[in-house]
Every structure is written in C-alpha cells, then in structure tokens.
C-alpha cells in the first residue's frame, strides 16, 4: 500500500458558463475539482486549506472511514468547520474499498461547486471481474446556477418555497449544446471502433436525480456505489445525488458517427425542474455533423418510477464471499424510520424548520437541527450540549404512511442520535411517506455500506421480511426510498463513531431530513475509535 497526498486549496475562481462570468468556490481552481486516484488499501492524506470567505468541511462520500470517523467531514456532526484562513488534514485508509466514489463540501450548499471524483483501483495484480476496458473515463454530473449557491440557499430557506431550479445540468462541468450560449461548452469523448470503455459516473448534483444514457448504445453496469454487481445491461441508468455507477460500453466495429450521451431528469414530484437535457458527445470520428443530426439517447420519462423500481430490484452483488462483509442473517437492532416532507401536515402549511427556517422535513417526527458543538466530539468526550441519545427506534404515532387522511405530523427541530452497540446487526426499514408531493428520497449513510435486502410498495409489513434477499443483495451507500414505498437495509455496526444519515437532495437536508447513528466502541483494544487529530478545528 502507498500513501497518496493531495493539497486542496479552497478558493474563489472566475468561470464563464452560459455567457455569464461569475465567481465560484473551487478546489485548486478546478471545476469539477481534482480526481483522487488510489488503490485499495492505500492511505489518503488531504491537506485542506481554506483560502475563501466561507466556513468549509470536506466529506469523502462512500469512504467507510474505518476507525477514522474524525476524517469523515460532515459539518457539526464529526467536526466543526475549517474557518477562513485555517487548514485541516484529512487522513484515512481505503480499507477494503475500491471503485468510484466522490468527495464534496459538506456544509451549506457549497457542494454545488466543491466536488470531485475518487477512483480506487484494485490492488496491483488484482484484475477487474470483467474484461479490461480500453480506457476509463470519469463522468461527473452536476448543476449550474447563475447565482451563488450560498445566496440561493438562504433565500429558499427563508421563504419556505419549493427548491430553486438550476440553470443547467452539467456533464464534467459542461452544459452541452442545447442551452443558450453553450454550443462550444460540450464534453467530448473520442472512442475507437471495436473497443470497450468503462464510464465512472457520479451524480454530484445538489437537487436532481437523473437517467443517464447514450444513443444507440446499451450500458452494462458492473458496479454501484463502488461495489461490484452481477453485470446488468440497460438502456438507461437511474442515478440520484450521492450515487455512483460504473458501466461498460462497447463501440461497434463499424462505428463512424457521433452520438449524444447524457441526462434526462427523474423527478416524480410535480414540481418545476429544468427540462433542457444536458448532452455530451461520444464520437467515433472527427467528421463534423451539425448537432441537430446527432442521435439523442432514448431515456425514460421524467416520472418513470417503475423503470427505477425494476432497475433497483435487478441489482445483485457479484460476490459476497469476496468482499469479506457477510450479509447479516440475524438482527440485533431493528429500526423503522419514516422519511418525508411535512408541509401538508402542518397547521396552515407552516412548519417551524430547523435553524430558523420555514419549511420542515423529518425522520420519525424529528427534524434534524444542526448543533453548535460537533456530535462526535460530544460523544467521544461524553460532553452535553450537542445531541440527546433518544432518537426513536420507530415512529411515535404510526399511521398509514402512504394514504389519507393526513395526520398532524408537525415535528420539533432537535438534534438526536440513535445509539447503537458495537457489532450489532442493524436492520433499518426506511418507510417513505407521501404527505407532500410524492418523492423518491436518496438516503445516504456515512461510515458504512449497507445491503439492500428488500424494496417494496405501500406500508412495510413484518411479513415482507420473508421475501428479503439475504443471499446476494447489492451493497450500497445511498438508496432511493420510493415515494409511498419502503426499503430495508442491513449492516453490522462495526465502525464506532457518529455517522450522519440524510437525504442527498441537498434542499431536503436543509429542511431537516437527516439524523445520526452513534455507534459505541467495542470492548477490545482494537475496537476503539482513536482520539481526535491535533489540528481538528475547534467549535
Ligand atoms: Cu455525500 Cu452526507 O454526504
């Protein structure tokens, strides 16, 4: 194993998109930010220096932070922010980790522009479980606003309004040819006829789920959230914020043309979104075609919920034995969390949101409120004043989560965690409610990958567990909880620390759709989280 060292400087950078020049926050002046390359087992050290005007933290999304919770990065959960002019060194090992993941700012809405890929190759001499591709390419999906994301966030939270619509979707920072004033701003992937390519696709967007596809080319998905799956061939990949997917494409021997590859939104909720597709170009030749004659991908409709459900139900881990993380066959701690927005359920549609906002989302009637003392620090040193350990195991007032009438569900903003014993086998059923507009919530858990053992419509029933897949379920770090449906996940709580869990639609996290699991240390010497690094930012 090697040590990979990176320097990340957070800075103001001038950039022009859609014919408007503005200042954005970047890492090292790059947008998207630099890719971290490493191999499984390597140690990664990232020196982060804050040379801009906002507080910042960086999260390594999908890195399980094996006994290194202090380096996980969610602000006020594992650390207080790195203030302007200060720095902090993140230091972690890629223990049993491989594949495509990403890093992003984890405070306010800075991740709109502060994000980049993490590519972890297998150890030297260990091949992929599929024929080696001719080339590999990172595809980062993002969003663009012609206003400052920090300003937008404040406006939205103060108004209680619906999420703001971005001005463009981006592929590796490029909106593609269909937007005004963006003809030249298109990502181009040149390919050789007869060869195959691995695309490492990352949805780093703030608030939009996508379908990704290529005209006239099927995609063979080989890994999701960094873990291998039994290859799955599809015309389109559903990918929510926080999800990553590796897919192979093979280029026909007789290919001479150009094809659009790109994005169509998936948004089941009836809210306004940007409907202009973002396209990149896959090119087998240098022949210049006018963009109107290039074929477009055949993507599902914006509300194609059954396409999404079929895709998720088709995912199977490639080999459980190989990844040394068995599927828990028994359960020590069984949790049922309701996940949703509360608007309709509040008197006069006004809910007190977290941190003085006007809108509210919740998990089990608790709306996550950001503390001022980092939760991990409080947990580690047994300090009061950050969170209370009384997050409920199940909803306080059970009801028909998918139907009517809508009960009064106003919840109180609070900072609570569920405390879990070391090595407990946890089963967590995430039950989507449909109290406001029906919506799929991509729920991300820090510090763990989890097996998705069940997925269904309606209210979860105990009898549903008879149909769980305990043999080869997919191992993910972000899973979509369907509108009016549920998912069941299992994992062994073998990594002590305080682990954030939240909807990766950023606006929903701002509204409080978040919670934390506090996993205790074990009894043995090597089952204990070490103390904090000396340069941990003070609260
Ligand atoms: Cu990718 Cu808590 O985040």
UniProtKB/TrEMBL annotation:
Q: Which UniProt keywords apply?
A: Apoplast, Copper, Lignin degradation, Metal-binding, Oxidoreductase, Repeat, Secreted, Signal
> Per its UniProt record, what SUPFAM superfamilies does this chain match?
Cupredoxins (SSF49503)
**Main location group:** secreted
- Its EC top class is oxidoreductase
* InterPro entries in the cross-refs: Cu-oxidase-like_N, Cu-oxidase_2nd, Cu-oxidase_C, Cu-oxidase_fam, Cu_oxidase_CS, Cu_oxidase_Cu_BS, Cupredoxin, CuRO_1_LCC
How many cofactor units bind, and how?
Answer: Binds 4 Cu cations per monomer.
Q: List the EC numbers from the record.
A: 1.10.3.2
Listed under catalytic activity are: 4 hydroquinone + O2 = 4 benzosemiquinone + 2 H2O
What Pfam families does this protein's entry cite? Answer: Cu-oxidase (PF00394), Cu-oxidase_2 (PF07731), Cu-oxidase_3 (PF07732)
- Return one Gene Ontology term, BP aspect: lignin catabolic process
**Localization per Swiss-Prot or TrEMBL:** Secreted, Extracellular space, Apoplast
Q: What GO cellular component entries does it have?
A: apoplast
- Which spans of this chain does the record mark as coiled coil? none
Domain (Plastocyanin-like) spans 10-123, 135-285, 408-522
Cofactor names: Cu cation
Which CDD domains did the record assign? CuRO_1_LCC_plant, CuRO_2_LCC_plant, CuRO_3_LCC_plant
GO MF terms listed in the record are: copper ion binding; hydroquinone:oxygen oxidoreductase activity
**Family of this protein:** Belongs to the multicopper oxidase family.
NCBIfam families in alphabetical order: laccase (TIGR03389)
**What is the recorded function of this protein according to its Swiss-Prot or TrEMBL entry?**
Lignin degradation and detoxification of lignin-derived products.
Name the chain's protein. Answer: Laccase
